Amino acid sequence: MVPAVIGDVVKLLKHDVELVRKKAVMALHRFYQIQPESVEHLTDKIRRALCDKDPAVMAASLCMLADLVQGNPSAYVPRCQHPHHPQPQTAPSPPSLATLATLATLATLATLTALTALATHTALVFQHQVQGPSAVFRFNSQADHRAPPPARL
Q1: Kindly report the CA angle at 97 between 95 and 102, in degrees rounded to 5?
Q2: How does pLDDT run across 89-118, given as a tens digit for each residue?
Q3: Chain centroid to CA 6: how far?
Q4: Residue closest to 136 by CA, chosen among 117, 120, 119, 150
């Protein structure tokens, strides 16, 4: 079933809506968990999603890349192409648990940052709808510690 829908999901990685892009990355991650060989050729697209402007898309792609690296670490070790620096003949070591924990922490922080921004935006919209535009100004300038304007009768 994965090969039948993977093309449509890959197209959604370029969608205008952030939530759609995030869900597309999450779907590709699930495809990787079900059938790893069906998604391994898409690492460049997942790396591009890591640079997305939305933190939730970045976090989802980071989780998938962590699984990809854990599954095949040798495919993600940078290779030196300089003629005076030959390739080492030893096998690369898998990523440490500390590296994976750092990646997971970064994903969590990106998600929390996105949720904080969403909560602030929701509070501003709610105040604007309930108390009018002047309430939004008071909400944004609370750090000024000025007295609120007198109430109108």
Answers
A1: 95
A2: 555 566 666 676 677 777 777 777 777 777
A3: 20
A4: 120
